[in-house]
What we know:
The chain has one domain (2-25, 50-129). Helix content is 76%, strand content 0%. The protein contains six helices and no strands. The longest helix has 31 residues, at 99-129. The radius of gyration is 16 Å and the shape is elongated. The model has no long low-confidence stretch (mean pLDDT 87).
Amino acid sequence: xxxxxxEHNKLSWLITIFGAVMIFYLSSIAFEFPSIGEEGTNLIxxxxxxxxxxxxxxxxxxxxxKINYIxxxxxxxxxxxxxxxxVHQLFVAGRFCTFLDxxxxxTGILFASMIYFISIKYRQFRIQKx
Length: 130
């Protein structure tokens, strides 16, 4: 499945950009009730941060796959986007910029990078074995 997305690079870029826009949009939603937007992170929020940035980073890795040396730079770009997302929330009513959210974003990004790197090595190993 990953190989299919690598071969259809334009679709991978489209999904990556859509993911970045959705993250920005969702972090732009102001909370009307203080109890919902209180500073603090619940389990659903934690899962959102990890999974949203996992998906964003995973498709970003697939999108730039044709450029082999850019893997580390892609991690930095994704982490920087997570940081910008948290800073952006400083300007949204009822939202907070928290270090924990940034760590959760980074966790999703690093997990995506590990999974993608392992999939590349596995495919290379299978080709060499044949």
